[in-house]
Write a structure and sequence with these properties.
The complex is a heterodimer of chains A (about 900) and B (about 110).
Chain A (H helix, E strand, L loop, with lengths): L5 E3 L2 E3 L2 H10 L4 H20 L2 H21 L18 H15 L1 H30 L10 E7 L5 E2 L3 H10 L3 E15 L5 E8 L3 H5 L3 E4 L14 E4 L1 H8 L9 E4 L2 E9 L18 E4 L16 E6 L5 H19 L10 E5 H6 L2 H33 L1 H9 L4 H37 L14 H26 L4 H4 L10 H36 L10 E7 L7 H16 L4 E7 L10 E6 L9 E8 L3 H4 L22 E5 H7 L9 E4 L8 E8 L14 E5 L9 E8 L6 H12 L5 E6 H8 L1 H35 L1 H9 L4 H30 L15 H27 L3 H6 L2
Parallel strand pairs in A: 6-11, 8-10, 17-21, 18-20
Antiparallel strand pairs in A: 1-2, 3-4, 3-12, 3-13, 5-6, 5-9, 5-12, 7-10, 8-11, 9-10, 14-22, 14-23, 15-22, 16-17, 16-19, 18-21, 19-20
Chain B lengths: L7 H13 L5 H12 L5 H14 L2 E6 L12 E6 L1 H18 L3 H4 L3
Antiparallel strand pairs in B: 1-2
Classes of the chains: A alpha+beta (about 900), B mainly alpha (about 110).
Chain lengths: ~900, ~110
Amino acid sequence: MSGAGRRRNGGVEPPSWAERLLARVLPDDATGRSILGDLRQEYAEQAVSGSERLAARAYVRRSLGLVVRYLFVGRRHGGGRGSGLIFGLGPFATDLRIAVRTLVRRPLFLIVSVVTIGIGVGAVTAIFSIVDGVLWRPLPYRSADRIVRVGGTFPDGSLGPVSPAMYFDWRAGTDSFDGLAGVYRQQLDLAGTGEPERFDAIGASAGFADVFGVELALGRWFSAAEDGPGASPVVVLDHGLWQRRWGGDPGVVGSTLTLNGQPYTVIGVLSSKFVPPEGLGRGLGEAVLWFPLARIDRDLRDRGNYFIRVVGRLKEGVSPAEARSEVTALTTALVESYGSDEPGEEFGVQVDALRDATVGSASATLIPLFGAVALLLLIACVNVLNLVIARNADRAREFGVRLALGAGRVALLRLLVTESLVLSVVGCGIGILLARAGVDLFTLYSTGDIPRTTELVVDGRVLLFALALSAGLPFLLGLLPALGLGKDGVAGLAGAVRGVGGNGATARTRTALVVIETALALVILMGAGLLLASFARLVRVDPGFRAEDVAVVHVGATARYDEAVSRLAYFNEMKAAIGSIPGVGAVGLSSALPFGDTGMGGSIQLEGWADDALPRFERWQLVDEDFLPVLGVEALPGGRLFEAGDLVGGPSVVVINEAFARRYWPGEDAVGRRLQIISTGPEAPWRTVIGVVRDFKQQRLSAATQPEVYVPFTQSRVVFSEVDLAVSSTNGTAVLAPALREAVWRVDPDQPIAWISTLEARIGQSTRRARFYAVLLSAFGIVALTLAVVGIYGTVSWNVGRRTSELGIRMVLGASSRSIVRTIVGRTAGAVGAGILIGAVAARAVSGLLDSLLFDVGPTDPATFAAVAGALLGAGVLAAWLPALRAARIDPAASMRSD
Amino acid sequence: MTATHLGEFEQMLMLAVLQCGDEAYAIDVRRELEERAGRVVSRGALYRTFDRLGAKGMLDWEIEDGSPIPERGGHPMRRFRVTQAGLEALRQSREALERLWENLDGVVGRT
């Protein structure tokens, strides 16, 4: 459940757990109830005027603030009201007061401890709320475990869309589903009212609402009749869009919007709780307009093109496997009756849970992160444990006095645990604040490949997790040091009241902790180092085309141009207008850009194959004669690129890439071969390959280039409604955007422009994910290293302080300053070295977790290991050096007097 | 310090109550403080100070049941009023401050 407001009886309610908590703490009288009422009223005002989610967060913040205030800060001012809970707890209150007083007396220890705990708890809690929200919580739909994706298998093994005809066949002929819906992503341009704007929209069949249990804030979803031919166009608005563009005006329902040049009646507004299903396909999660599938700009009788995503709700008791065999049997039967246009045996049917598809590979990125922060928390605990042990050793005299005055051992233990409890509670408080900030930052900067980030919230469940963590800490930090210190527990604390704190056992324990800390830090740093190395290699990959000084404009056709010929003429006009901008070189037209949003595939048949060979599914795109030259892509010797002369009526031609030639004509000359793109419609012409181009990267720098066919615009009967213009410029691309916009609008002032960017920026976008994880894990690595250095420094200085007189004696006996520094630094280096070795073994054991995030670097890369180990050793030696120098400057005479 | 000593925030809160006149409900008082004094006030500080001023006898309040605002979920509202003692304390604070401020315009200046 999200922490946002729930609806009850049509009204808006604040998070109930926070209200219940507050009601318990506030005085149970009219005053208390009036405060509850005030907070409710403020919540409602904020929820109505802004976002319910923000209002809910503010409510939680306010009520927790009040809870803390009324619990802990209450009575001092003699208010007479308020429950003052902690004063009813007898001896615990006394312990608490003593603990707080003792801790406040040593502010440095207090601050370092709580900040360290805060960082550890904060990082773990933040990542927990992300892991929990993304991986573990059910999708926010009614019995979401029964929602499945149904589709065909793509060449790369993934589940892909199907042809609309196939979807209708499935819907009519299967019995495994309570509902089966088809969706198609399309952009809709709003014109006529206010600023023209382009929206991500989804054409969905009427049954979509039943599959997902869609709830509406206003109006209704479209009916089956409205999702049929001849019905008048209707549209449903997303809640956020309704708020943003129409200010939440309920009058919008019933009004008419001009979308892609056609009048659509608004019939409903989705509930704010409805989250568009991200797992359905790229970009579907961002949709803000919903309209009937019958109205999409594609032919719904099409069998050759696959663009419909299918989602279904399984009948109770039907498994995905059973559904799959039913759909497969149906598809096989259909293929036989339709003949060769339909892909046959190789067209495997897949049915998978929408949840798996949504969460997808996110666990591959989140689990290593969770592991890293868990280690970070361990380091933080080890560090604080180390501090507590040192402090207890220094307090031997105090403990002795307390025991002598009649304090029982149990009482002493209780005091220690109480002190740790205070540290834990304050630390966890800091941690929760950090976690909230962390989750917000993650939502802001995560790169879109982590799904469901809009659902993330630090709510009761996450707080419970943080509380569970903090419940364990007091025992770890309070009991463990007490038990470990002497043979007989607490008495050992007060063992030797000699005026010199600590003993050899304490020193050994602390050194062991340094070893553990170093080992843990090494594992995190190794992960960070590997991701950084991957990123460095990734950005050095040559995309294979010229990206410098190429601006790109992504535009859509206005609905005026329905025919391919007039659309192309319109795009050419636009091209000429852009070409006349001073400083612009060539302008190329394409249906898809490298590193763009779009890309398409279709069935391709090759000449010379056996008659009954099935068509292959491969990528293809439309380009004009200038597009490949703008990218600096040339034909390999023996072939050529398109020329202005390759027009309709002339011989039909294509250019292919090396990957295509390698797959289908390995070792042969591809030029002169013929192929047929069935997807361009019935009676698709046979096209002759006139040239082969060098492979260049298509979507990601890290992926191998896929086979691709380039078809000239002039020879296509299909011209898509969206095109990309690639513009080479001689005076940089930075200043070009306004001129480009102006040129496009000179041709048609109503033309929406989806975006203007540069090829370099698009490539940069594609490496954001790698950069994000490298930066995130490096941040954890830096924190881990800092904690380790603080721990080492603390241990060495404490040791030096403890051994002042011993070191003095050594110097009197002739030890040089140098040898003392060498001994101290050498011992520390030994401990750090041992930690590095242990850490290396541990890092190797878990290295497989990072596999999917690495590019061109093995999980046990020796160079990375050497760098990380060197950095840790260097930092450790440095941390030991400063206290060692101080030791070397001891005045032997003074040190012996002090004993 | 006398028993009538008022802290800065206490004074501001009472002045805000007075500014709200007959409509001095907690939410309005807080809004008044934020708008007039530019203070962002935590709910904890606000309600605790109401309690404290009540205990000192500077402030009292009337409980209004059956609020006409449905969003309150049926909870009562408190309407605050500065008592005579409160007014007296405010007056004393002001006089004390004014005496201290005398002839300092040239030194401190005005905005």
